Amino acid sequence: MRPLAALTARHVARRRAQYAAGEKPVYRAPVPVIVIGNIFVGGTGKTPVVIATVQALRARGWTPGVISRGYGVKVGAEPRVGAGELDPAAFGDEPALIAHTAQVPIAVHPRRALAVEALLKAYPRTNVIVSDDGLQHLALARDIEIVVQDGRGVGNGRLLPAGPLREPASRLDHVHYVITNRARAERPSTERASRGAHHVDMWLQPDMARHLATGVERPLTDFAGAQQTRRIAAAAGIGNPERFFSTLRAVGINPDPCLALPDHYDYRQSPFDSVPGEVIFITAKDGIKCRRAPDTRLWEVPVQARFSDPNLFDRIDVALRGRATSR
Question: Is the distance from CB of 70 to CB of 35 less than 8 angstroms?
Fold first, then answer.
């Protein structure tokens, strides 16, 4: 696969050079833009970082809005804009989760410039844009770039299809922050230290489980103590399902079976009919699509991102204010 990876590298380099030379147009929003993405194919924990960023910016006086491609959704010519409780089938599961959890307006469209314009028109008080993914969408200018990776680092360091990377590992030298999502005790198998970026560790911390049918919340520790009398299963339709299962094990819950579903699984057909157990834990990303599911065994497990650098968002706040005044 190395010759094909060389073609990928050539395409990536040519495309970046075209934007840098002005051969392709770049849209610059009238407000600062933060792009949160990755270079590794698959889930690395980007959505919790987007939610944490929105919440931290709001706490520091900003009025954020989010844009997203709307993966798996046929948006059409016009962007879709909304806030609060959004239909995952119309906006995508991750945008719906972000809007629900962070209570933030969101616009989805493959062309990020159109999404920004639609968002600012519908919510004119928005003064900072957080782009959910879009690191490789060079048609949108950005003020801050954040890469989220996990313990796999850059894998074998090769581009698709010989490796897991969308861009060369050297791309990490040119972003502002690299956030590594890992369990506290985990050490990455392959991690490349970038020269220019500020490195931060992140871990996802669960606390409560929420019953989808009733909204009742209970501490996860309650379920850890009940495994002697109740059979507990788990399911996850995310980029890395094993991370969710490991999160449950870390708090003393050993689900059996563990059902790994495809990322962005749409739940048009219930996968739970053949799953034994009195309790089935699912991720918040799955929960946003299962709220009308008739299976009363479903409990979603929201997680919150925690960071090794307590000043991370203060740094971002200062940088944003400098960019906002220079516009």
Answer: no
106-108 and 128-132: which strand pairing? Answer: unpaired
Mean pLDDT of the chain: 92
| Angstrom distance (rounded) from CA 187 to CA 277 | 33
Residue 94: burial class (beta carbons within 10 Å; 0-12, 13-18, 19+):
buried
What digits encode the pLDDT tens for the residues 180-238?
A: 998 755 654 445 566 789 999 999 999 899 999 999 999 998 898 766 668 999 999 99
Q: Rounded to whole angstroms, how far apart are CA atoms 327 and 285?
A: 36
For residue 208, the 8-state DSSP code is: E
Spatial separation of the C-alpha atoms in residues 173 and 195, rounded to whole Å: 5
Give the whole-angstrom CA distance, residue 142 versus residue 308: 25
Q: Name the H helices within the chain.
A: 2-20, 46-59, 88-91, 93-102, 112-122, 220-224, 241-250, 284-287, 312-325
Number of other residues whose CB lies within 10 A of the CB of residue 327: 10
Report CA-CA distances (Å) from 273 to 196, 263, 267, 280.
Answer: 50, 19, 12, 11
143 contacts 166 by C-beta, under 8 angstroms: no
pLDDT digits (tens, 9 = 90+) for 72-82: 888 999 999 99
CA Rg, the chain, in Å? 20
Q: Is the pLDDT of residue 70 over 70?
A: yes
| CB-count exposure of residue 276 (10 Å: 0-12, 13-18, 19+) | exposed
Q: Where are the alpha helices (DSSP H) in 201-310?
A: 220-224, 241-250, 284-287
Three-class DSSP category at 180: strand
Residues 6 or more apart whose CB falls under 8 angstroms from that of 54 comprise 64, 66, 98, 102, 104, 130
The better pLDDT of the pair 305, 324 is held by 305
**Alpha-carbon dihedral sign for residues 72, 73, 76, 79:** negative
Tokens of 210: 């929420």
Residue 91 pLDDT > 70: yes
